[in-house]
Amino acid sequence: MWTVITRPNCLWCDKAKDLITSQGGQITQFDVTKQESSWLLTLLLGYTNLTTLPQIFDPQGRYVGGYKELEEYYGDKGGTAKT
Question: Domain spanning 2-74: which superfamily?
Fold first, then answer.
């Protein structure tokens, strides 16, 4: 299960979720605008230098990055994940 930290009306968040699902991946998403996920803002902004969304973690819990890094993970054309 992929983890995507997201917010509404975020083009790159939507593209990331679409890319993952197009490759057969399943997503757990955390919307930082919802009360139950608001702690992520403190984590992202308070303890790291991560200030943009989406923030993506692979099924093994490894940090991938944002949409650009996700594309690199899957290859230039959104093909098979690199190993």
Answer: Glutaredoxin (3.40.30.10)
